[in-house]
Amino acid sequence: MQPRFLKLLKSRRAVSAVISNLILIAAVIVVGFAVLAWAQSQSSNYNNQYSSVISSDTNQLRERMVFEYIYYDNAHNNLTVYLMNFGTIDNVNVTTVYVNNTPNSTIALRLLSSGASISSLNATQEGYFSISPSPSLVPGTNCPIKIITARGSSFVGTFAT
Q1: What are the boundaries of each domain within the chain?
Q2: What is the pLDDT of residues 36-49, one digit of tens each?
Q3: Which overall architecture, per CATH, does domain 65-160 show?
């Protein structure tokens, strides 16, 4: 039996077939681990993105604002809006104000840091901002007002000019 085994070991065909099979198996294992690492990385990225979106949406739902008082000064074309954050999230920033002056015209007023008295409202805080609509609002009308926060929440109220 030993002469046959020695003859098999000395044969180059038998050794080359075994070595080529081992090389192929090793290559498949390496490629498999590379694909597994890539899939795990992609899964982790998707998980992080999903949790970020869910957190952002949850924070948006936790925003609650109420218009306490809205006053428009016709003489000076000055709109003052008093707000209260009664939500459970801090750092609510008003970014845009829409005012409907007449049924067919909407004025979009973007708040600038220099032109507004309010930067952010924490939970249970009150604040206000003053802006000058352009064009001026028509006196004696009821105007809807809509504010948009930095997180995308919108709140609607009405005031008389």
Answers
A1: 2-61, 65-160
A2: 999 999 999 999 99
A3: Sandwich (2.60)
